[in-house]
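To assess whether the prediction recovers the assembly geometry, we first specified each molecular entity separately, as shown.
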Amino acid sequence: MNFELRIMRLFLLAVFCLLPFCLSAQIRVGSGTISGDFSFNGMYYIPDSLIGAREVDSKVRGNAWLNLNYTNGGFSTGARYEFYLFPLIDFQDIGYQGQGITYFFADYKTNFIQVTGGYFYEQFGQGLTLRAYEDRNLGIDNSLLGGRVRVTPWKGIQLKGVWGIQRYNFNFDYTKRNDNVRGLDAELALADMIPKLSDNGVTLTVGASFVSRFEKAEDKMFNIYIDTLQYHDFYNNNSIFEFTPTDRPNVIRVQGVIPSENIPQNVGSWATRLNFGIKGFRLEGEYASKINDPNLSNDYIYKRGEALMMSASYSMKGLGVSTSFLRADNMDFRSQRDAVPAYAALMLNYIPAINRQYSYQLLGNYGYASQPNGQIGAQAQVNYQIPRRTKIGGRYGTDITVNYSRFHDIQKTFVPLSDTIGTITGTEGYTSKFFAFGKNLLYQDVGFDISRRLNRQWKLMLMYNYINYNMTLQGKPGMINGNHVGFELTYKINDIHALRLENQYLIIPKENNLDDKDKGSWMFMLLEYSISPNWFITVSDQWHFGNEKKLHYPNGAVAYVFGTTRLALNFGKTREGILCIGGVCRAVPASFGLGLSVTTTF
Amino acid sequence: MKKVFLFLLVMSILAFSFAQEKAKATLPSVEVRTLDGKTFNTKDIQNNGKPILVSLWATWCKPCVAELMAINDVYDEWQEETGVVLYAISIDDTRTAAKVAPFVNGRGWDYKVLQDINGDLKRAMNVIDVPFLCLLNGNGEIVWSHTSYAPGSEKKVFELVKKVAKGEEIKN
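The predicted structure of the complete assembly is given in tokenized form:
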């Protein structure tokens, strides 16, 4: 028996050892409690050249973790063990491979102070300067190892200070690290302090944060290819760099060394924020700025970065309107300047994509990805409920959502050769007008959905969207201009048995200059049979019918849930995206095979 | 390699041996946000001795929304009969956090809504996937919890709420 199989078998054994005590819910030790969770997602991979599911070196793969927490009054401590030695292939692709104790902490908390040592997660304001977070389904864990203090000296005032070294996948040798992060954050809830505000129903919170990243500078070997049409006169011609023509048109090779004294070791980033509300109206905003931070993602330019995120909303019972605006320019901020931009590892801040987040398969495949180094856009959404027990609204009411969003790159004017910033040898790269949209549309989406319970048994949802998705977001040519139509029908046979049918089409005209994998229209169909509250049986197919290959991505799954434990088996082909099966949603890899998932909370 | 599994096994056996009695766990003390941006500690969740439901959900999670819609259709009856209150705690992060209030109000939900924007409560409660629903008795002790949603399971939830309202013990 090979090594992997043996490991998998041991893991399964561990799972079954854990199950009985999961059933006993939370466990009391002394006057404290132990709680935790366990998760295993495994897969047996079958190569399939048709859909591009590649042959993998170990066919049996899996991700697993075990969290244990102990809490006693204001004191808590915990640890997590992660096993990703033979991870699912999409995790391996992002370098998420290894095993060990990846998280441990001790925390003490009173009404006045909270002190945390070990690993911790933290977010300042909306996260434009600092967001240490995790999303294990996506292989993101940007926790900090160090210490944190939160103080509430007065009602309505909160101060936070953090120091730490950021987790980098499974590289645990922190003594070799030349980088660390320090941050301060203050938040004042003014409405708590000024009675006149709260008496008038006003809430007002202001905050500010400062984050500084240190990374020891070393002479930086520089060897990149640049497009002279886009980046003409981009680099300062100070004899540091050598420019050589290549055999590709308009592409030159830039080589040289940036001496360490020209590289800022400390990069500071700050932000101010506001959160104002009166009755149903709410205004939230955060503006952040980052000083010169030459790094791999911005081609080592010295330009200041900035980001603004604003949202305004109004809501009353039955109606909600929200609008958001986002601009981000050169705001990719990481613990290490040479971190690979394509991966989320070592990301210090969080510049979100603010378009509507769809949980439908075909739209999920072409969901907008945030561009921290250059995006400007807006989103508007209206949620309205036609009241229940009216002629149009029906007995249970009818919910309508209308949505619009549009994102562009930012306008850039590349600076001439001689420009340098102060005494630092380097280039600003470009200048950009704050509110100007760049000429390239990255994403647009306009649509609506209507959801209505027809009677005790039937529920129907109809939707329509028109999307434009620039394939450069996936590093490919072309633009998807698609019409998305679909419905979801739920039939509750009785209080135990129910059927749910989803059917969606993404109609993409043929003339688009698209990659073969994306060319042509798609259909998705899903049928789920549930036996409340334990069983979920799902079959689905994604069919690329508009493409010459007419590929199918069929899938079947059975899930069994008892309490907070869920066991699921699935077999089939999947594209990358968000898939909801058996009542929960998670990100799934592009693959073909047999999968097993065990999750439990205890 | 073997050490790893030994560790796992020892951890589970340890935890197993600690399982002398069922703990009456309460909600952890974690700071979340109210819809109007104020800080709120989850240990302050209470309902004058009546049952409390706590749902962890997200605007982008279909089964979560389906569950909350289904409960909303009968919520006034539940409240009349048992006095139960539902806290719908959204785990939407900054990406969709500002849309939670319009989303909730647009659907006319009467729940108490809180926001766990950086997943602190989700982590403290060891929740892996949403929806995650738990039931607290009048003393704030978690007496039942469940993950995922299948249409119709709200009926069972109501049976449990009624039992808790009467002060009866329930099995998870």
